[in-house]
Automatic annotation (TrEMBL):
It comes from Wickerhamomyces mucosus. Residues 66-86 are annotated as: Disordered. This is Elongation factor 1-beta. One of its GO terms (cellular component) is cytosol. SMART domains: EF-1_beta_acid, EF1_GNE. GO terms for molecular function: guanyl-nucleotide exchange factor activity; translation elongation factor activity. Residues 125-211 form the Translation elongation factor EF1B beta/delta subunit guanine nucleotide exchange domain. Residues 87-115 form the Elongation factor 1 beta central acidic region eukaryote domain. Pfam families: Arc1p_N_like (PF21972), EF-1_beta_acid (PF10587), EF1_GNE (PF00736). InterPro entries: Arc1-like_N (IPR053836), eEF-1beta-like_sf (IPR036219), EF-1_beta_acid_region_euk (IPR018940), EF1B_bsu/dsu (IPR049720), EF1B_bsu/dsu_GNE (IPR014038), Glutathione-S-Trfase_C_sf (IPR036282), Transl_elong_EF1B/ribsomal_bS6 (IPR014717), Transl_elong_EF1B_B/D_CS (IPR001326).
Amino acid sequence: MSFSDFSKVESLKELNQFLTEKSYIDGTTATQADVTVYKAFQSQYPSLTRWLNHIASFTEEFESLPAGTAPAPAAAAEEEDDEDVDLFGSEDEDEVDEAAEKLKQQRLAEYAAKKAAKGPKPAAKSLVTLDVKPWDDETDLEELLANVKKIEKDGLTWGAHQWIPVGFGIKKLQINLVVEDEKVSLDELQQEIEDDEDHVQSTDVAAMAKL
């Protein structure tokens, strides 16, 4: 059956038969012929179209969906045979637009419900190793460490530290910390540490990794 004969299709069963060995209504690619038939079907059966599109969104969950009562196959086939399809009848664009809008709103509501059920995403965090260099070998390193750890911020957690020789009897402080990325700016934290001008010469980020 060619597309020129397609206007003779009178039932869902015939439409299904027509598409048995075809991917498109006319030719080997999607054309306006497919759009015309799709819109005609959607106009004639907006509820069925909405249902098919909606159920298709559950494809990955088919095996886990709860049991339900499906119509008897024979009854469903009988209804199909009795139903005439006017695929090229007049379109009511308002009905099509309304059905599409309802489907859109329904999917948005389902997405929002799934997102709410999963709960908020955990805050993005980074593990940072910070080098803090003193002025010289006479700098009180314990006071330097105490001043660094005095800095408290929401989203900042200080970790382990060690002293690393850098030459000429000078040792730098290397300290680990965990920060919540949205709450703590490393640039501002480094500046705050360097404000201790009596003890700190400079700071550098030695390493950083996302958690």
